[in-house]
Structure formats: structure tokens, C-alpha cells
Design goal:
Blueprint lengths: L2 H5 L7 E4 L10 E4 L13 E5 L7 H14 L3 E4 L9 H9 L4 E3 L6 H12 L5 H17 L2 H11 L3 E4 L5 E4 L5 H13 L5 E3 L2 E5 L12 E5 L7 H21 L5 H14 L4 H10 L8 E10 L3 H11 L7 E5 L2 E7 L5 H12 L6 E7 L8 H15 L6 E5 L5 H7 L3 H22 L3 H10 L4 H8 L3 H15 L6 H13 L1
Parallel strand pairs: 2-3, 3-4, 4-5, 14-15
Antiparallel strand pairs: 1-5, 6-7, 6-10, 8-9, 9-10, 11-13, 11-14, 12-13
Helix pairs in contact: 2-3, 5-6, 5-8, 9-10, 13-14, 15-19, 16-17, 17-18
Length: about 500
């Protein structure tokens, strides 16, 4: 259903306050919240209901509405519990962020609003749609999509499948060979507009408002949708809506397991105690593995952190479910080290998704295997590999642990504060001197090490006289108390520069 249908429900009495020109937005679900910043719990397309309990000042309205707009909600329904009115600052914030705002009558409970809208979402558009939505009860009860799709294929002769962007089959009315599934996924990722028809199949998005296709599901039907009657097209739209509900139901971010996975990742990143990490490994089903591999991923562009998390879980589909969390907009995943081809598999999956990454750049780093005691080091290695991937070309780039030098593996296990002190002690005197005297000492040091201490090669590389080079090297040694003729001091400078 769309927002304009809400104003046409006399039993609700909702009135449009702002956003009259935005009422064509579809409503995918209803969410009630009293959090000041509910963005992390929203996935887009929701009608949000709130009693404004979070509001303490006019500035709070800006914070709340900005979070809704960033999450891509369809609209907001609100009512102040005591006065029944809407504060002007909330109205203005909604107008500024183009979030349609509805006034909910104070005598109407949010539970009644939710019940009416959910009932409307589940109302059939045609006779065969009614049959589908009767099976929707089984979906809500936890039976999944299989009963719905099997009934469509059996009773309506309409074979259909729900797939992920990687080509993984979520559910289907009949088997689908892997080659066809991959081809359909490629069609979904590369089509300019959806729905579309390719090679005798019609492809529909599960959520038309999704930020990025790489994070969504899609529905494929046998046949050309342009040849269908209106009722059959309505069925396709309803099935996509049902699949969207199932996708939200299976999103484990708010489940106990999902929250524990997030806690596990944060503990590992923060060098938590083993006594805190081990129980969470147990709950997530990862305990007892001989080793673990870490994966770090970041998206630069339109892909939101919650969607990035979904993408990474999809990339890591395998025998064991990964534990995935988001830390500082970077997705971190931990998986058992039982897949020797993990880097190759992730690289192939990212390459498959790349055509749809038109407004996003995805970078991924994969660590080597590490025991439970080395989880932090594995995560640091994966994050370093991901930063290295940022320098690679293309919309999607993956760097595995095998591409990292041995000294990088060593540095990954050193605590952040130790690395920082090491880098500052050696390089800060040179950088401070360069800022005052423009002496180019840091660049000279890099070139000297690059030339393995050859005075002639280094002076040619820097285009300076060898005496100038000798003066600079002597100044570096005086400022740091190190001797660049000694191998151990050269190694220290090399590591400090790599850390810098």
C-alpha cells in the first residue's frame, strides 16, 4: 500500500500535516518507537509511529527526523500523549527532510493503527492473490516462503523463485539449476529498470525503495510479465511484498544471536577478555573450531552499514554461519577456518556484485587462519588488508592475507597503543623538523631505505647532490639518535614508515 491510502481510511482519521507531494511512497511495514535515534533498527520503507516521549527540546526533533530520513522511512505518524498536538519544531523538521508527517488522533492507539495497516497490506487484490495471502499466515507463523511459492506453482501454474543477488536460492516452487540462478541474479544486478524480462523469465525487486540491489532479494517468474493479465501482475507484486516481510523476519540484527554476534565482534576489536569472548563464541556456534578467519569490509557510497552487514553475510554463505558485527561503519566477520578457498570465493562474489555497485565502492580484506587467542590479530590483519584494497581499481576490491608481507602479519598482533608510540618516537622528530625547515627528511628516509642505503642511487632518485643527501641522513640520525648504517635501526625506520 501507499501513504495516500492512509488518508483514505476513515476508521483511522489520520491527517496529512506535511509531505502532500510525497504520498506515493509505498509502506512496507509499521514500526513504533520512542528512541531518539532509531536509525539502527530501520531498514527503509516503514511507517514510523511515535508518542514523542523522546522529545526534551526542539533540537531533539531535528535529531529524530534526520535519523528517519537517513534510514529511508516512508512516513511518520505522531501524537503527543498529553496534549494530542504536534510541536512546530517536529513539523518543520519533517518538512525540511521531506518526511511525510501524519497526525494520529489522540484517542486512537498505535496498536489499532498497526492492526489496520497490516490488515490492509494483507488484503488480496484479486482472487488468486487472496489464495496467496491465506498462506501468508503460515509465513508469519514461521513456515517460511516455501508453502506460498509451492501453492502458486501448483494451483496457478506459475513457477517462481526468491533469490539473493549472489544467485543463492532462498525458496522456490520447483528446483532451479545453479546456472540459471546465477544468470537471473546477473539480470537483477545489471537491469536498468525493474521489473524486466530476460530469456523467458521476469525479474521483480522485493523492495523497490532499496538503497542498493546488492543488499536485497528478488523474485523471478517463468514467463513474460508483459503478457500477463492485471490480476497476475498484482500477484507478482504481492508475492514480492510477502518475500520482503520474510526477509525482515530473517534479519537477525535484533535477535539474541545477532546481538551476541555484534557483542563478540566488538569485544574482539577492543581486546576483550577471553572469559567474555568464549561464551559468545559458544552462543554463535563458532566455539571449538581449530582456527578462525576474519573478514573486514567497508562501503564508500550509498550502501548503509546495515545493508553492508547483509552483503557480507551473503558473501560468506557456507557450512557455518559467520558472526558479523559493525564497528565504526566497518563490517567485521568471524568464520571457522575450514574453507581454504575463502578469499577466492569472496573475490568471485564481489566481482559478481560489482555491476550493481554504481554508487558504492566495496572493499574487503581477508585474514589468514588464527587460533582463538589470535582473534584480535586476525581482525587487525583483515582490516589492514581492506585498507590495502582501497588502493586497488574497480568498484569492488578484495585483498587476502597471502598478499600481505610477513612484517605486516607481525604488526597486526601488536596492540594499537604500542604501535602508535613506536611510530611517534621515530617519525615525529623528523616531521616536526620538516614542518619548520622544509627539509624533506621523511621523504629522504623513505628513498634511502628504498635504495637499500645506496648513496648514489638515492641521490639520483631524489635529484640532489650526494653531499646534500649525506647532510640530510646525518640530520635524521641526530634527531632520532639512530644510526642508519646499522641493520636493526634501518628495520625500525622501515616499520615505522609502514605504520605511518
Amino acid at each position: 500500500m501507499r501513504l495516500n491510502a492512509l488518508a483514505g481510511m476513515p476508521e483511522l482519521g489520520l491527517s496529512v500535516v506535511t509531505g502532500h507531494d510525497e504520498l506515493e511512497r509505498p509502506v512496507r511495514w509499521v514500526v513504533t518507537t520512542d528512541l531518539l535515534d532509531p536509525g539502527r533498527y530501520l531498514t527503509g520503507g516503514e511507517l514510523v509511529l511515535t508518542g514523542l516521549i523522546w522529545r526534551r527540546s526542539a533540537d531533539d526533533s531535528e535529531t529524530f527526523v534526520r535519523a528517519l530520513a537517513s534510514a529511508g522511512v516512508s512516513g511518520l505518524g505522531a501524537c503527543e500523549a498529553r496534549s494530542g498536538a504536534l510541536p512546530p519544531d517536529l513539523v518543520e523538521a519533517c518538512r525540511r527532510h521531506r518526511v511525510p508527517l501524519f497526525h494520529v488522533p489522540p484517542e486512537l492507539s498505535f496498536a489499532e493503527v498497526t492492526e489496520h495497516i497490516v490488515r490492509h497490506l494483507s488484503t488480496a487484490r484479486a482472487s488468486d492473490v487472496t489464495a496467496v495471502l491465506d498462506r501468508h499466515r503460515q509465513l508469519v507463523a514461521g513456515a517460511g516462503l516455501d508453502p506460498v511459492l509451492e501453492m502458486i506453482g501448483r494451483d496457478l501454474g506459475m513457477r517462481c523463485w526468491v533469490l539473493t543477488p549472489s544467485g543463492r536460492l532462498v525458496s522456490g516452487s520447483s528446483p532451479l539449476d545453479p546456472g540459471t540462478a546465477t544468470a537471473l541474479a546477473t539480470t537483477f544486478l545489471t537491469a536498468r529498470r525493474l521489473p524486466c524480462t530476460r530469456a523467458g523469465y521476469s525479474v521483480f525487486p522485493v523492495d523497490e525503495q532499496t538503497t542498493s540491489r546488492v543488499a536485497d532479494w528478488f523474485v523471478a517468474f517463468e514467463g513474460r510479465y508483459s503478457d500477463w493479465p492485471e490480476e497476475r501482475r498484482a500477484l507478482a507484486g504481492e508475492l514480492a511484498a510477502v518475500a520482503a516481510v520474510e526477509r525482515v523476519r530473517l534479519d537477525d540484527r535484533l535477535s539474541p544471536e545477532g546481538r551476541i554476534a555484534q557483542e563478540l565482534v566488538r569485544l574482539v576489536v577492543a581486546e576483550g577478555k577471553a572469559s567474555d569472548i568464549l561464551p559468545r563464541l559458544e552462543v554463535t556456534g563458532l566455539a571449538g573450531a581449530p582456527g578462525y578467519v576474519a573478514l573486514a569490509a567497508a562501503a564508500h557510497g550509498a550502501l548503509r552499514p546495515a545493508e553492508l552487514r547483509s552483503v557480507i553475510k551473503e558473501l560468506l554463505q557456507g557450512p557455518a554461519a559467520p558472526a558479523v558485527g559493525v564497528v565504526d561503519d566497518e563490517a567485521i566477520a568471524l568464520v571457522p577456518a575450514d574453507d581454504s578457498d575463502l578469499t577466492a570465493r569472496v573475490r568471485a562474489a564481489v566481482q559478481h556484485l560489482s555491476p550493481a555497485l554504481t554508487d558504492t565502492r566495496l572493499t574487503v580484506g581477508v585474514s589468514g587462519a588464527a587460533p582463538v587467542e589470535g582473534l584480535r590479530g586476525a581482525v587487525e590483519e583483515a582490516r589492514f588488508a581492506r585498507r590495502l584494497a582501497e588502493g586497488r581499481p574497480g568498484q569492488g576490491a578484495v585483498v587476502g592475507h597471502e598478499e600481505l608481507a610477513t612484517h605486516v602479519l607481525l604488526l597486526a598482533s601488536v596492540p594499537d597503543d604500542v604501535r602508535h608510540v613506536f611510530k611517534v618516537r621515530l617519525l615525529d622528530p623528523l616531521r616536526s623538523y620538516d614542518q619548520v625547515h622544509k627539509a624533506d627528511l621523511v621523504r629522504t628516509l623513505e628513498a634511502f631505505l628504498q635504495c637499500s642505503g645506496s648513496w648514489t642511487k638515492c641521490s639520483e632518485l631524489l635529484h640532489v647532490h650526494v653531499n646534500t643527501l649525506r647532510y640530510r641522513i646525518q640530520r635524521i640520525q641526530d634527531l632520532t639518535g639512530r644510526d642508519l648504517s646499522r641493520l636493526e635501526d634501518r628495520v625500525d625506520f622501515f616499520l615505522a614508515l609502514r605504520l605511518g
